[in-house]
Amino acid sequence: MKNFNKNKIEQVEVMALFGYEMTPCQPLTFRRRGESETEVSELLRTQIKFVGGVALHIFDVLVGREQITLEFNSRDLSWHLTQLA
Question: Which pTM does this prediction carry?
């Protein structure tokens, strides 16, 4: 995975599983612009943050040994890579 500036929010394409057992949404893979698909190894934590009238669904996941954060915007249905730990 190429370097990521922690101050930048990058839009990504995500393949997610919705409505599975006790987890209403789980990201499975994501793709950054110009790169191949990256598989999510493990879902660590989920939370919802309300900003104005928008619910942001935040997913802390592992990709190999790297922890990243993906956000799903409920208003425009977009996904963003927001943080590499």
Answer: 0.84
Sequence letter at residue 37: E
Could you give the C-alpha distances from 46 to 18, 49, 72, in angstroms and in order? 14, 10, 11
Which residue matches tokens 């879902």? Answer: 43
> Of 24, 22, 66, which Cα lies nearest the Cα of 42?
66
| Residue 55, token pair as written in the block | 């619910």
The 10s digit of each residue's pLDDT in 5-35 is 555 789 999 999 988 677 788 999 999 999 9
What is d(CA 12, CA 66) in angstroms, rounded to the nearest whole number? 17
Give yes or no for a contact between 30 and 39, defined as CB atoms under 8 angstroms apart.
no
Confirm if 4 and 81 have CB atoms less than 8 A apart: yes
Are 37 and 55 in contact by the 8 Å Cβ rule? The answer is no
